[in-house]
Amino acid sequence: MEINIWSDIRCPFCYIGKRKFEAALVNFPHKDQITVNWKCFELDPSIETKPEVDYTEYFMEHKNVDQEGASGMFNHVTAMAREVGLAFNIKDGVIANSLNAHRLLHYAKKEGYAETTKEALLKAQLVDAENIDDKEHLIVLAKAIGMNGDAVREMLNSEDYTYEVRQDELEARNLGINGVPFFVLDHKYGISGAQPTEVFAEALDQAWKKHNEEKLTILPVGETGGSCDVEGNCC
Fold this sequence. Notes:
Blueprint: E1 2-7, H1 12-26, E2 35-40, H2 55-63, H3 67-83, H4 99-111, H5 114-126, H6 135-145, H7 149-156, H8 162-174, E3 182-185, E4 189-192, H9 197-213
């Protein structure tokens, strides 16, 4: 059974939701038969990378809140993160466009490093307060995971995987997804937001039950019908 998860690397609730979903999945009895696909979603594709700008001031300006309001929001999400073992550092974050990071994620899928790359990118943005649009930093991150640094540099200096990122976002729009994280179980059941682990656990159980109920049933028939198998044998 497939589970597609749309998220943005800049989104704190996406990291929290990832942890809560993982906690449900680890106890799911059929977890070995689950395939998780990470889908890209840019909350603000037009955002300009500005590592020199103070994150709190930027947040205050764009959310139209004062410093007390910004601090309250940061403290709230940081407390939520702490509950799932994450040490967020929101106030020191870097204002960065996430397209290059999403492109790296698609490259990592091809190389077999999707899960570790997704985790590393979220940590870089939300815990380590690093610039996820800095190509040299992304290369170092990829090499630490096990990817070829020269190949990653070549990819980042091209337009490769931009199309794939846009296709993920187009798919999200077609599904009516306008916020992240968003989880789609078995291409049928959607869950929005960083829900409690119990909600994810129940959804997994329900989706798995439906998934198996809706499998093709072979009807008992006579032996007169001919057929061919995958080896090319026909009878």
